[in-house]
Amino acid sequence: MPQRPVEAVIALSIVLVAGEIVHARQGRIGVTQRWPWMVAFVFEALHGLGFAGALAEVGLPQHEIPLALLMFNVGVEIGQLLFIGAVLGLIAVLRGVRIAVPRWLALVPPYVIGSAAMYWLIQRVAAFQSRARQCERPIDADAAGFARVSLGQIRGALCVSAQ
Q1: What is the dihedral of CA 35, 37, 41, 42, to 10 degrees?
Q2: Which of 54, 116, 120, 160 could be bridged to 11 by S-S, CB 3.0 to 4.6 A?
Q3: What 3 state SS string does 73-139 have?
Q4: Is 147 helix (H, G, I), strand (E, B) or coil?
């Protein structure tokens, strides 16, 4: 499967989650609360496709991709458990501390996450539309093959990174 469309859909999934967080904090029930198992399954499949595509792009042999995906997922789960443990420990330590925080502050993280994901989505969709035209033009590159990117070469740099 082509990597750029998968990356765009992954970015869109992050936008969806950010919107769901905002809705939940406003008291509205969203799709992630109605069907959490469905959302988790779809997101895991999308992110797995993205990671599998990245592994294939770096040259990992096809027969090693399933094991690499399994180990990646195990690592993600362990990382999530460690993060949750750290957050629960921090909550236990700070339980007695009362700080007055404005209500709007709770909306800042999902808006920042959603904005970053929207930027990634627009960047990847723009790469679809200009890829054929931009990939035909040569790009200056140093000996290591990294593109020297100027404002006029951003889309061209996307073509170099996809090769």
Answers
A1: 10
A2: 120
A3: HHHHHHHHHHHHHHHHHHHHHHCCCCCCCCHHHHHHHHHHHHHHHHHHHHHHHHHHHHHHHHHCCCC
A4: strand
Token pair for 110: 């999902």
Query: Is 12 part of any domain?
Result: yes
Burial class of residue 117 in the structure, from the number of CB atoms within 10 Å of its CB (0-12 exposed, 13-18 middle, 19+ buried): buried
Q: What is the pLDDT of residues 27-60, one digit of tens each?
A: 899 888 899 899 889 888 888 888 878 777 777 7
Torsion of the alpha carbons at 65, 59, 123 and 6, rounded to the nearest 10: -30
How many angstroms separate the Cα of 103 from the Cα of each of 21, 87, 98, 107, 155? Answer: 14, 21, 15, 8, 40
C-alpha dihedral (119, 123, 126, 127), degrees to nearest 10? -170
Name the residue among 22, 84, 73 with its Cα closest to residue 48: 73
Flag whether 76 is in a domain.
no
152 within a domain of the structure (yes/no): no
At residue 131, the pLDDT reads 63
Residue 113: which domain range?
Answer: 3-59+100-135
**Total number of domains in the chain:** 1
| Residue 112 pLDDT exceeds 80 | yes
